[in-house]
């Protein structure tokens, strides 16, 4: 009887160990001595006298062209009238003038705020996503527009999701699409990315009704967490989704937090603090063609919120990110002051295309730049 009881206890402990969050860490301390990548760079947009705020950029290759998408405001961050624009390039060097994808509607006679939310392609149709909310961060909606040529766009489609995504939809191994918000992770089994979205989070649904840049504070406080927001994820061969989150505000201690899902994004583990360093900024995870995982972001903790230098770090196993490269650290000088404008390399988003990695960033939340480098520079 004792032997049976002992085996039963061991089985329970094994299940508990399996359910624990696996560690994800990096080894970055400083950029001194790190190899520098040979890069090409191009300014997509530098404002002159109007539309002086640019942020939340993303990039995609679509039918022989590069398309950049970003939020564009008159002067200050996330203020009424903020719109979403895009620009097109055939060679990354020459970019079109910004073209308006969407302009905000009004709520009580005040213009709402639009936020660019990434792009996704399915069978020759490109979907561009953008969020909308009021001046007081209410009435949050996610919209989408589609195009088959990169020039002519459909009417906006309401996706019935009260979320402002951090990155556009990404496809899991199962084919399911997953969006990273601040603390919500909607998923859909519609391959077009235009319907079937279901809200989801590691928080109890009673704690939130929408997910935007103001709503992540309250549920975190009620659960005893620091302000968790702006996640990005990668999926390992065992199908586990590893989703890391930024901590901001007074809760920042220079570390990313981690939640995981091993059931195709239906449930998420309780978040824990990792030893993955962070400067208090958005970042982007992905997978190289050779199967290794990568992070592009600002892991420096010595100069909080400077968002410099921009670093690529690679991991063979998805647990330890231990091979780092300097992508860029040159300074951009702000032309016009504005609310919350700052940060040298803001909110990177990446794609892999024809042997290159492309990284798009905002510069001091004013200009938009694209950097690319050949993947054959990355040591095995």
Summarize the structure.
By secondary structure, this protein is mainly β.
Short descriptors:
4-stranded antiparallel beta sheet; mainly beta; Neuraminidase; 380 residues
CATH level-1 class: Mainly Beta
Q: Structural class of the secondary structure composition? A: mainly beta
The main sheet orders its strands as 2-27-26-25
Query: Would you tell me which CATH topology applies?
Result: Neuraminidase
| Topology, number of strands | 27
- CATH architecture group name: 6 Propeller
Run of helices and strands: HEEEEEEEEEEEEEEEHEEEEEEEEEEEE
Q: For the CA atoms, what is the radius of gyration?
A: 21 Å
SS strand fraction = 35-45%
Specify the helix fraction band. under 10%
- End-to-end Cα distance: 53 Å
SSE order and pairing:
Blueprint: H1 2-19, E1 25-26, E2 39-45, E3 53-62, E4 65-73, E5 83-89, E6 99-102, E7 106-107, E8 110-111, E9 113-122, E10 125-133, E11 141-147, E12 157-158, E13 167-171, E14 177-180, E15 187-188, H2 217-222, E16 228-235, E17 241-247, E18 255-261, E19 272-277, E20 284-287, E21 293-297, E22 310-315, E23 320-321, E24 323-328, E25 346-353, E26 356-363, E27 367-374
Parallel strand pairs: 1-23
Antiparallel strand pairs: 2-27, 3-4, 4-5, 5-6, 7-8, 9-10, 10-11, 11-12, 13-14, 14-15, 16-17, 17-18, 18-19, 20-21, 21-22, 22-24, 25-26, 26-27
Account of the protein in words:
This protein is mostly beta strands and 380 residues long. It has two helices and 27 strands. The chain has a single domain (24-377), classed as Neuraminidase (6 Propeller). The longest helix is centred in the first third of the chain and has 18 residues, at 2-19. The radius of gyration is 21 Å and the shape is globular. The N and C termini lie far apart (53 Å). Residues 3-18 have low confidence and may be disordered.
